[in-house]
Design a protein that fits this description.
CATH topology of the largest domain: Rossmann fold
Order of helices and strands: HHEHEHHEHHEHEHEHEHHEHE
Structural class: alpha/beta
Helix content: 40-55%
Distance between the termini: 53 Å
Number of helices: 13
Amino acid sequence: MKKIKFLMLAIMAMMTTTAFVACSDDDDDNKAVSNMERYQKEVDNYVKSQKKKSKAILLVAFGSTWQQAYDAFDLTREEYAKEFPDYDVFLSFSSAICINRAMAAENTAARSFYEPKYWLEAFGRVQYSEIIVQSMQVIPGEEFSRVVNAMKDFGNNSNGDLDDKYMSQVTLKLGMPLMYTVDDTRILANALHANFSKYAQKGAMLFMGHGNPDEYDTYKANVRYTQLEEALSALNKNYFVGTVDMADNFKVQVRGRMMEAGLSSGYVYCAPLMSIAGDHAHNDMAGDDDAWDNGFEENEDGEVEDTSWKKYFSHMGYSIDENTFKDNGSDALVKGLLEYSNIRALYKNHTRQAETVDFYHSMYPEE
């Protein structure tokens, strides 16, 4: 399942890159430039029409094409607008694939999210005096690095068209991911315990995060999942945290830790440890993909592919409550973190504690 998805994403990413920069003749090159200019113009016009305050907040998520995810993002943005009344609030996706699919109305009505670089450029053109970029990532990994790089490009005026005086005076702040520090993992553990304790009392409560592959473990962020499991375990030994991409922390290794803890049977409950419930939550965790053939064959990384967490643990002898593997109903657990008010509150606290960054002056050390 995962290999096929990676192949499809890689092909689409290549197609996206080709559409923007890898054209073979002058006509295509001109078309690519015009496409980017068109996106910038669309964002410019939107920001101009929505500018009511002197300061702005940009929420940056990886993205999705699920309506459930859009609803969670919309709710979050609405709350931000209410709780940060001195700021105009906007939402951006960092994934070109998700942006393109959203524009193409793959699963829902067409929507335009655009990359952070377009929003930041538009903010500079209308000259917001303060800009807070809030990462909606869970860990400070690969996707968080994209957020930082977009801010660096803006702070360094990479397009060379923003006013130097404005760039030297604008306040640029960065709101950190949900588990940026070790202390954050303990804070998140308490919030998760408040939401999921009743399931941990009845069986194994598993959280499925994304994680970075080892070769892309930016900022060594994968350790946050281990630290979160340790913090949760202090509250109830039935909590476990696995991922779809972190080596040695797939569902197979999660089961190994469960066995060591004496949980070889009983009920298993699963929830996504991701800001929204999208493909990973609905398919990798709660889907019906099943490669069982009188047993499972593990790949070279020790993972069982083409099998959801629900099906895997069912075959391993655990009991599954199907109602919890739905995205609606009182017992449904297929919900992103942004669908819980106390988790949204943690993101907003990170925004209030956003750190000022000075990428502009990093270009001019003599000043």
